[in-house]
Amino acid sequence: MNETSKLMLQLGRVMKKDRIRFWDTENFNVRLGKRLGKLDASLFFRTQGCRHDRSGGCTMCDYSAGPTTSVPEMIDYVRQGLDSLPSGMDSVLVSPSGSFLDTWEVPLDARNGILALLSQNQYPVIAFETRAETITEESIADCRSRIPEQMMRVYCGLESADPWVSQFSINKALEPDAFVFAMKTLAKYNMAGVANVLLGAPFLSEVELIEDAVQSIQWALAVGAKEFCLFPCHVKRWTQLEWLYGHGHYHPPSLWSFIEVLHRLGSQVVSLQGEIAWFTNYGAFNILASPTTCSVCYAQIIEQLHGFANSSDYTFIDRVYAIDCKCKEDWQEKLQTHMSNSREERAAMAYDQIGHVLYSDAWPMMRENVLTTISLAQKNTIHAKKSIFYAGEIR
Ligand code: SF4
Ligand SMILES: [Zn+2]
């Protein structure tokens, strides 16, 4: 692990030290909605949390953590959650707020017990979330054998296909090869791989973040993802992003940028393979700042985005794209404005300040190494980007 990652992880641990942990008091949480016009539920259940979160986590994430949870408890919480759902559900996502296939988070017996419940309930579509590295031929073959008939969708966090953004902006610690392998393995077992893509990673200008999301989605679909889920970044409490936001290094993206990404991808891709999430804050208790527009147009925009989220009907995107507002003109002007510094310079400024705070007197000895890694990685990224974005496929 390089020094930049260590720095971001340490900042994550410092930020999370005194956090309010949702899963200390809740055993499961259910969110109801619609997908493709049919009833859809997301059921989150208590575990000790995501393994990566425990070490400091991705910069924008506070999926929270919980106390040690036994196998029978986990299965029981999922059972209670499923029992609370209205009848007639078409699709159900079951998520540990981390990785369903990481046995540190969800032990094998718990996974098997939960899959048995899902199989018994015969929902037409079942989904779970897991980090790409947790996908192996063995784990997917086993899941498929336990759910032989229902359609399965598996969400994997890609966030960005650009290695520089993945490492320095998000601290994802994801190898692109692992993502490609995951998508191919899921397809082999007739499961749909869904790439979670983030709009609004730190250190990117508004233009850069739009391009990053569009290219990441195109790359994910080219290497085997069947679908994508685009979500704009919120500033959550107890995250590295809270620190960056509080120190003037971050601001959430505009919802106009979110709409722009969907428009650039076009109706074919978006209506057949696209899903959107987190365009509102869902009333979450840990959100400090959110992507938005202005008070004049916000309600109309959210209404149209909800329309699309519920139905996958691209007419809603056409409608929202056509809305005019003064804040849209301001956003367009911002896109035209040339930034005086590069993303590497913006990142280096932030990392430098973080280093001073975390290491004080020891920082000058580490500083050059960390800041050089960020700017040298730019060159490597350009090379890597070619292999990622233009070769279409890795191995
Ligand atoms: S985004 Fe996913 S991998 Fe990253 S810390 Fe959150 S739950 Fe873990
Ligand atoms: Zn407006």
Written description of the protein model:
With 395 residues, this protein is α/β, with parallel strands linked by helices. It is built from 16 helices and ten strands. The strands form two sheets. An eight-stranded mixed sheet has the order 1-2-3-4-5-6-7-9. It has a two-stranded antiparallel sheet with strand order 8-10. Helix 4 (108-121) links the parallel strand 3 and strand 4 (125-129). Helix 12 packs antiparallel against helix 13 and helix 15 (343-359) packs antiparallel against helix 16. The structure holds iron/sulfur cluster and zinc ion. Zinc ion is lined by residues 293-294, 296-297, 325, 327.
Sequence-ordered SSE layout with sheet pairings:
Elements: H1 3-16, E1 28-35, E2 38-45, H2 51-55, H3 71-83, E3 91-95, H4 108-121, E4 125-129, H5 137-146, E5 151-159, H6 163-170, H7 176-188, E6 191-199, H8 206-222, E7 227-232, E8 235-236, H9 240-246, H10 255-265, H11 267-273, E9 274-276, E10 287-289, H12 298-311, H13 315-322, H14 326-336, H15 343-359, H16 363-390
Parallel strand pairs: 2-3, 3-4, 4-5, 5-6, 6-7, 7-9
Antiparallel strand pairs: 1-2, 8-10
Bound molecules: iron/sulfur cluster (SF4) and zinc ion.
Iron/sulfur cluster is lined by residues 50, 52-53, 57-58, 61, 63, 98, 131, 157.
